[in-house]
Specification:
The structure is a single chain. This protein is about 40% helix and about 20% strand. It contains 9 helices and 8 strands. An 8-stranded mixed sheet has the order 3-2-1-4-7-6-8-5, with helices on both faces. About 0% of the residues have low confidence.
């Protein structure tokens, strides 16, 4: 029988975990076997317990507070599902998203998921930020660009790097995630590919995300998510991301996305910010000791 375990990782997010959990509970998916809420702090776990009431499928796991890879590894030891859905405690999954996300594994056709060649799938992040602000506009441009790239790569049957905001993966393909991993979604994506399975993109599986609202947080988040791609295992022909690929796709999409002169100006500032970002990552890569400092909390994404 096909079975699905949902893992929601969260850390000091009592103000957002309720919405995140409710968005999973409201999914129309009878395949969900269990939902694990994993957090290192009691406030987040208590907020989740109040939201869930006495829901029988939900389990609460307190992790040691040593980072997301450690939290995921702890959850992986406890889950029973054959397919794992991973999401975060500060996002909101759209209605019907899980049903769409699971379709590539064969759930829609009612066939055994073992017949599918898909090892991982991901949904489409949608910003909830205000597009009429510069950082809000940046979030819309970057997420739309990622959406377009994934669509193109899907049409060409190419490798897709999964988005960690909402992804599904076969449990049998996962090995313990190295504790120093900064981009667990990229690590899992390449793990699927190395196992001989496909990764796929499901744009109908939408997940609503709040992106940074100040420049300091923007750089903190992007340094963390982009640093991993400077490592040798990610700089290959399969990878979706690199400074050169980003420049190529960015210039291509820049022609149509802006709707005003103001947005054209904001876009030019984004290109400058991305150049500064990649220069920062290059210099940080020369000093491995800085790696631990890249995993920092992004406060402006946690606000209601």
């Amino acid at each position: 029988m096909n079975s699905v375990s949902v893992i929601i990782t969260s850390s000091h997010e009592p103000q957002t975990i309720g919405k995140a959990l409710l968005s999973i509970l409201n999914q129309d998916s009878s395949e969900i076997l269990e939902i694990l809420v994993v957090a290192p702090d009691e406030k987040t776990l208590e907020a989740a317990r109040k939201t869930a009431a006495n829901h029988q499928k939900i389990k609460f796991v307190k992790d040691p507070g040593q980072g997301k890879p450690t939290a995921l590894n702890l959850a992986l030891k406890k889950v029973k599902g054959e397919i794992l859905v991973l999401t975060d405690g500060d996002v909101e999954v759209a209605p019907q998203a899980l049903s769409h996300l699971l379709e590539p594994f064969g759930f829609a056709q009612g066939m055994p998921f073992s017949d599918s060649k898909v090892g991982g799938s991901c949904g489409r992040p949608i910003p909830i930020n205000n597009r009429n602000t510069i950082l809000g506009f940046w979030s819309y441009f970057l997420t739309d660009s990622a959406h377009q790239i994934r669509l193109i790569r899907s049409q060409n049957n190419q490798f897709i790097e999964l988005s960690g905001y909402l992804l599904a993966i076969r449990k049998s393909l996962i090995s313990p995630i190295p504790p120093n991993t900064l981009a667990d979604d990229s690590y899992l994506s390449h793990l699927v590919a190395k196992s001989g399975f496909k990764t796929t993109y499901v744009p109908e599986a939408k997940v609503f995300v709040k992106y940074p609202t100040n420049l300091s947080d923007w750089f903190k988040q992007k340094r963390r998510s982009s640093f991993e791609f400077w490592q040798k295992e990610y700089l290959n022909d399969q990878s979706m991301r690199s400074p050169l690929k980003e420049a190529w796709w960015g210039l291509k999409f820049a022609k149509k996305f802006p709707k005003s002169l103001k947005e054209i100006f904001w876009l030019s500032l984004l290109f400058l910010a991305r150049i500064i970002l990649w220069l920062q990552i290059f210099f940080l890569s020369l000093f491995p000791s800085f790696r631990k400092k890249l995993w920092v909390r992004i406060e402006s994404t946690k606000e209601k």
